[in-house]
Design a protein that fits this description.
14 helices; seven-stranded mixed β-sheet; 437 residues; single chain
Length: 437
C-alpha cells in the first residue's frame, strides 16, 4: 500500500464514526482556535508597540542628562519630595549643563552613532498661513537616525536639507479644518517665537515669525509624543537661533542630549558616560516600554494556558477515539496483517488518523480565528469603535510565521497522542485478531 493510499484510507476511517471524530476535532478546534487567536493578538499588540517604539526613537534611542539632574528627577518622581545630597562637582538640577567638551567626549564612545543637544523650543503661537486664528503649540526636533514616526499621511522631515518642515497630528488637522490628513500635506504654517533678550530691551521688536511646510501627519498612538509637533533640523536651528539672539553663550544651558546608539552596547556606553565630566546618565525606550510589553505578555500567556488545557483535553480525546477504533477494527487489522501488511504500515495508518484529527481541528481553528480576527479589526476601527483613534493598530495580525508553527505543533501533539493506540494496533497478533468477536 502506497503512502498516498494510507493517507486516503486513514481519512476515510475517520468517517466511520462521524460523531466521535467530530467531537474530537471540535476539542482540537477549541484549543487551536484559542492559541492561534491569542498569538495573532500578541502579534498585533507587539507590532503596534514596535511602531510606537520606532516613533520615539527605537531601541537604540537615548536621552542623556547630567548625572545630578537625572538623579534628582528620578528622586522627585518616586516620592515627590525626596531630598538628595548636594554635590559641588555635579551642581543642582538647574545649574547642571552638558558642555561642548563633554558632548564631544560622549560622541567618541564606542557604539554611539549620533548625539546632539536637545533644544527646548518655546514658540509663542502657530497658525495656518493666511488665517487669523492663532494656537498655542509645542515643537521639538529629535536628531536620531532611528526616529521613525508612524504617519497617517505624508512623509518624515528631511533633516539633510535647509527646508523648514513640520509634522502635525490629527488634532491640528481638525483645528485647521482639513477634512482628512492628506489635505494638510503641502500647506504652510506660520510660527512665532520670542527673541528672549529683545523682549526685555525692546518689547515692540521681540517677536519673529518663520514659515514651514507641513510634510506629514502623525498617526495617533499610546507612546508617540502626540503633544509635541516634530520639526526638521533646519527649522529647529532657526527657531532656537531667533529665541537666543544676542544671548551671551554663558547663559545657554544645555540640559538634554538625544541620539541613538548600538542597542547591544548600551550598558557599556552607560558605564563610560558616567566617567565623562561630572558624570552622565541616560534613559532608553526600553525603560518606558518594557513594563507595557510585559503587561500584555502576561495577559496573553494566561489565555494561552487555557488554550493549552483545551489541547490537553483534545489529546485525551484522540487517545480515546483511536483506542476505540483499534478495538472496533481488530478483525480488520488481523486480516490486513494476514494479507501481508507490515507492522510499520499498520502503525503509520493509525498515526496518520491521529495527525489528520489534529490537522482538521487546527485548520478549522485557523479559519474561524482568522474570520473573527479580521471582522474584529474592521469593527474596532469603525467610527466610535474601540480603536477608532488608532488607525495603525490592528487588533490581530495573522502571518505564516505565526499560524504554520501552531498548526504543526497541534499535528505533532495529535501524533504523540495517537502513538499508544497505533502501537497497540501494530503489535496485534493476526491469528488472535481474526478470532476476535
Amino acid at each position: 500500500m502506497k503512502f498516498f493510499d494510507i493517507v486516503k484510507t486513514a481519512n476515510s476511517n475517520l468517517l466511520r464514526n462521524k460523531i466521535r471524530s467530530f467531537l474530537t476535532i471540535l476539542a482540537i478546534f477549541v484549543g487551536s482556535f484559542t492559541i492561534i487567536l491569542n498569538s495573532a493578538i500578541n502579534a498585533g499588540v507587539n507590532d503596534f508597540i514596535d511602531k510606537q517604539v520606532a516613533s520615539i526613537g527605537g531601541d537604540g534611542f537615548i536621552e542623556v542628562m547630567p548625572g545630578a539632574a537625572i538623579e534628582q528627577v528620578m528622586a522627585m518622581s518616586e516620592t515627590g519630595s525626596r531630598v538628595t545630597k548636594y554635590s559641588e562637582k555635579s551642581g543642582s538640577i538647574l545649574s547642571a549643563s552638558i558642555t561642548k567638551e563633554d558632548l564631544e567626549a560622549m560622541k567618541k564612545v564606542d557604539g554611539v552613532k549620533n548625539l546632539e543637544i536637545f533644544h527646548l523650543l518655546s514658540p509663542e503661537w502657530m497658525r495656518l498661513d493666511g488665517e487669523e486664528d492663532k494656537y498655542n503649540v509645542n515643537l521639538q526636533y529629535l536628531p536620531t537616525t532611528t526616529f521613525n514616526v508612524d504617519l497617517s499621511a505624508g512623509r518624515m522631515t528631511n533633516n539633510d536639507s535647509d527646508d523648514f518642515e513640520i509634522i502635525i497630528n490629527k488634532d491640528w488637522v481638525e483645528a485647521f479644518n482639513f477634512d482628512k490628513p492628506e489635505d494638510a500635506i503641502g500647506k504652510t504654517v506660520e510660527i512665532a517665537t520670542k527673541k528672549t533678550v529683545k523682549c526685555y530691551t525692546n518689547p515692540d521688536d521681540c517677536l519673529a515669525t518663520v514659515k514651514a511646510k507641513i510634510v506629514g501627519v502623525q498617526a495617533p498612538g499610546v507612546l508617540s509624543m502626540d503633544g509635541d509637533l516634530l520639526v526638521s533640523k533646519a527649522l529647529d536651528a532657526e527657531l532656537y537661533a531667533i529665541a537666543n539672539e544676542d544671548m551671551p553663550e554663558i547663559n545657554l544651558q544645555n540640559y538634554f542630549a538625544v541620539g541613538d546608539v548600538d542597542p547591544d552596547k548600551i550598558e557599556a556606553i552607560r558605564e563610560e558616560f558616567k566617567e565623562i565630566g561630572s558624570g552622565y546618565e541616560f534613559l532608553t525606550v526600553s525603560d518606558t516600554v518594557g513594563m507595557i510589553r510585559s503587561f500584555f505578555d502576561v495577559i496573553l500567556a494566561v489565555f494561552n494556558i487555557f488554550g493549552a488545557i483545551a489541547l490537553l483535553a483534545a489529546a485525551i480525546g484522540i487517545i480515546n477515539t483511536l483506542f476505540m477504533s483499534v478495538q472496533e477494527r481488530t478483525r480488520e487489522i488481523g486480516l490486513s496483517k494476514a494479507l501481508g501488511l507490515s507492522r510499520a504500515k499498520i502503525f503509520l495508518s493509525f498515526s496518520i488518523e491521529a495527525i489528520s484529527l489534529g490537522f482538521w481541528g487546527s485548520i478549522f481553528g485557523t479559519a474561524i480565528s482568522m474570520a473573527i480576527g479580521y471582522a474584529a479589526n474592521n469593527l474596532v476601527h469603525t467610527e466610535g469603535g474601540l480603536l477608532a483613534d488608532f488607525p495603525t493598530f490592528n487588533l490581530v495580525e495573522f502571518s505564516p510565521e505565526v499560524v504554520i508553527p501552531i498548526v504543526l505543533i497541534v499535528m505533532f501533539i495529535a501524533f504523540l497522542s495517537g502513538t499508544a493506540p497505533a502501537l497497540k494496533a501494530a503489535k496485534k497478533d493476526p491469528i488472535d485478531a481474526l478470532r476476535y468477536e
